[in-house]
Amino acid sequence: MNVSAIRTLQSMRYQEQTMPIIQPPVSLTRRAMLQRSAAGFGHVALATMLASENASAANVSPAIAAKPPHFSARAKRVLFLFMSGGPSQVDTFDPKPLLQRDDGGKYPFTEPRIKFGETSTLLKSPWKFKQYGQSGLPVSDLFPSIGQCVDDLCIIRSIHGTNPAHGGAVLKLHTGSDTQIRPSMGSWVTYGLGSENENLPAFITICPTLAFGGVNNWGAAFLPADCQGTPIGNAAVPSEQATVKHIRNVRLTTAEQRAQLDLLAAMNREHLQLAGANSALEGRINSFELAFRMQTAMPEVQDVASETAAMQKLYGMDNPITAGFGRQCLMARRFLECGVRFVQVTHNDSEVQWDQHSNLYKGHSKNAAEVDRPIAGLLKDLKSRGLLDDTLVIWGSEFGRTPTAQSGDGRDHNPHGFTMWLAGGGVKRGIAYGATDDYGYFAQDNKVHIHDLHATMLALLGLNHEQLTYKNAGRDFRLTDVEGHVVRDIFA
C-alpha cells in the first residue's frame, strides 16, 4: 500500500465517521427489547466483575520507559551467559578429591529416586584443577582464561532444581516454571525496570536455542508485548549471519512505513478509547514503533567490524574456534553499552552442546575451547569500561551432571547440585558460596534453588521479587511464584 492509497483510506474513514447515519424507525415490544438486550446486561455484569483488573492494567504503563526500582539497586542490567545442555560442575568449578580417589567405586550415598537415565560407578574428572588469583579459587584446565578472572567471580556451588529433563529444566531456569507458560526472567526485568534506550529492545537474546521450550524462554507470556525478548538469529545460524528477522523492508520506503504506522496507530488508539485500557494492545503499539526505529539502530550496534583489531582479538575473533562465540560476546557488550537492560548469549551446538552422556572429554574440551577466551575477554572489557560494577553477569545452565558414569565415559543429567557463577553487579568477588556433597551429587551447604537465584537477581536490580507481580486470569503472578529467598550472603 503506497502513501496516496493510505491517505485515500484515511479520507474515506473520516467521511464515514462524519456522515449522518440514517436508520429506519424500529418499533419494539417490551418482550422483544428484553430479548435483544439480554447479552448487553451480561456485558455490564462482566465489566463490573473485571473492573478492578482493568483498573490495575490502566495503572501499569506498558511503555518500556525507565522505571524506578523498589529500593536502591546494586546493578542496572543483566548479562546471562547460557551454556545449553549442562556443563559438569565436578569438571569445571567444583573439584572433588574423593571423586578422584574413589574412581570406579560405588557412590556411597543414596542416589535420587527419579533419574533421567541409569549410571554406573564413580567417574573421576579427566581434568586437573589449578588455583588462580589472590583468592586461590580452583578452576579446571578447561577454563584457563576464565581462571585468570576468578577474583571477579562469585562461584555458587550449591544450585539445585527439580527437573532432570532438558525441556522442563530450561524452562524453569528461564521462566521459573517447568509446567506452565510464564514470562521469562528477561521479560520480568523489563517489566519491572523498563528500558534505558529508545531505539533498541530492552531485552535481547543472541543466537538462542529453538529447542527445550524455544520462544517461551524469551517470551513475555501474559506481560505486555514490549517486554518480550528480541532474538538475533538462533543456535542453528552462525553468529556472523545472525540478525533480527525482517530488519529491512525491501518493498516500502521509510516514509511509506511511517504513514502505515500512523494509520495503524490511529485505528488502535481509537479502539482503546472505545474499549478502555488494554495493556496487550498498547504493548503491541509500542512494539511496532520500536521495530520501526530499530531498522537504523540495530544494524549499527551489531556491526562489530567497527571495533579495533585489538578488541576483536581480545574476544577471540582472530581464531576460528573462538570467533563465533566471541562475536556473540562482543555484540552483547555493545548492546549493554547502548542501554539494553537484559542480554542473553547462548552457547549451543546442535551436534554436541554440553550434554555429554558419552565422550565427556571430547565434548567438554570442544565446548570450553569455544567459550573460555571470549568470556574472559568480555569480563576484562566490561571491567575496563566500568560496566562490570553495575552489570550482573550470570554464567550457567539448566543443570549439572552426575559424578557417576554413563555409557562408559559420559555423565547423566543432574539437577540436584551444580554450579553457576556471578560477576559484577554488587556481588562479592573472589568467593565460592555453598557446597555439594563429597562427590558433587547433591547441594548440601547453603543451598540455592533456582527460585532463590531469581529472587537474588531481582534484589540486586533493586526489585522485591514478592512485589514484582502481574495480575492475570484472576491471580497475581511473579517470577518466583510463591517461593524464593534472596541470598544476601553474596552481596558485596
Word description of this protein:
- With 492 residues, the chain is α/β, with parallel strands linked by helices.
- The protein has a single domain, classed as Alkaline Phosphatase, subunit A (3-Layer(aba) Sandwich).
- 36% of the residues lie in helices and 16% in strands.
- It contains 13 helices and 17 strands.
- Strands 1, 4, 5, 6, 7, 8, 11, 12 and 15 form a nine-stranded mixed beta sheet that branches.
- The longest helix has 25 residues, at 360-384.
Descriptive key words:
Alkaline Phosphatase, subunit A, 492 residues, two-stranded antiparallel sheet, alpha/beta, 13 helices
Topology at a glance:
Layout: H1 3-18, H2 30-49, H3 51-59, E1 77-83, H4 97-101, E2 129-132, E3 137-140, H5 144-147, E4 153-160, H6 166-175, H7 185-193, E5 203-206, E6 230-232, H8 254-275, H9 279-302, H10 309-314, H11 323-337, E7 342-347, H12 360-384, E8 391-396, E9 400-406, E10 410-414, E11 418-424, E12 431-433, E13 435-436, E14 443-445, E15 448-449, H13 450-460, E16 470-472, E17 475-477
